[in-house]
Amino acid sequence: MGWHHFYTLNLDQEAYYFGEELFDYICTPTARDLIWFLAMPSWRGTPNILREARAAVTIDSSRKSSLGTLQLPAELLLMIFDQLDDLADLTHLAICHSTLLRVGRRHVYNMMCAAAAMWAGDRLICLGLDDPRMSGKEANDDLPQGMLSPEERRDWLSTQQKFNRSPDENVEDATDEISLRNFAITAFDNMGCDRFRPPRFLNKLDGLDERIARSLLKPLYPKTGWVLCNYSKGLFVRADAIAKLTGWEEVGPKPPGRIGLCEALISQIAWSANRDEWVGLGDADKVMRGPWAGDRFAIRNTYHGFRLDAQGWMDVTEEVLEHLTGMWKAHYGEKWKEELWKKQAPPPPEPILRFGKGYF
């Protein structure tokens, strides 16, 4: 099995997730922290912001603090929070008064969720090695149709000039291109494998302010109800079906050390023109041409914001699992489930919940 590295690229943010062999993406737990870039945390409170804000003003109107009773219209307070685009500013404003906390906590949590699910809604492709017989232009022509804009192709021409040409050569006269894969690993940001962690400014708070702020900035990931959503095609895959297939309990968007939605995603976005170092995961023409490559994705929860029966969405869990199971069988044989069990890491110990500066 060759050293066939696949990189998961985010085309919108010009970032990539570290390279793995396709086998490792599909069959081992090494790359599953990718899920945290897509999993949208659930909201803890009422979805009606204006109603909650008006209730907060009414409830807290008789309370006094250094800011007074703060008897301002709820609409005005919401407008103030809407003007802030920095998580630290939002948090500090929210915790300085009980009314502001009630009005602004959803703004704080929404911005934290956007930071946690930083890749949600973006175009993704898991791209393998280029075919050495192809030029850069041929490799780009082989990508999913319509995935790249003409502007992106032109950007790569200038990148080719920057990295491989003399300064006096005219890029407009050039006919060659650098391939998407080579461009990405050269110019894109490496996202590593770390999940969201609350910002450092929390360490400057103390007492009640610190506890409140850390509570606001702690993502909520329910244990069950997770789905992988393909926004481009209106399709979704259920995590509970993967758990049932493998025999493991569903424990959040990323089962600790176990098969889950990451494998379902990679099986649908893997793409490569190279056949010389093929890994044995089934029909190469099918596996290396992921039908969802270049689409937009997020991982959402059915208890908080996503409905399985929503208009315009289709459940394709069975089709995706059939494809994924075929890859496992091609590599492991009929005893694929037993072999997968051997590859899985034991679940980590339960964390100690506390609100000190070392929390999270």
Characterization of this structure:
- Strands 1, 2, 3, 4, 5, 6, 7, 8 and 9 form a nine-stranded mixed beta sheet that branches.
- α2 runs antiparallel to α5, α3 runs parallel beside α5 and α4 packs antiparallel against α5.
- The protein starts with a strand and ends in a 17-residue tail after the last helix.
- It is an alpha/beta fold.
- 38% of the residues lie in helices and 11% in strands.
- The chain contains 14 helices and nine strands.
- β1 and β2 form a beta hairpin.
- It folds into two domains: 239 residues, no CATH class; 89 residues, no CATH class.
Summarize the structure.
By secondary structure, the protein is of the alpha/beta class.
> Which structural category do the helix and sheet elements fall into?
alpha/beta
Major beta sheet summary: 9 strands, mixed
Overall 3D form: globular
Q: Give the fraction of residues assigned to helices.
A: 25-40%
What is the average of the pLDDT values? 77
Unreliably modeled segments = 59-64, 165-169, 349-360
Please count the beta strands (DSSP E, at least 2 residues each). Answer: 9
How are helices and strands ordered from N to C?
Answer: EEHHHHHEHHHEHEEHHEHEEHH
What is the gyration radius calculated from CA atoms? 24 Å
Estimate what percentage of residues fall within beta strands: 5-15%
Cα separation of the termini = 39 Å
Query: How many structurally independent domains?
Result: 2
Name the quaternary structure.
single chain
Please count the helical segments.
Answer: 14
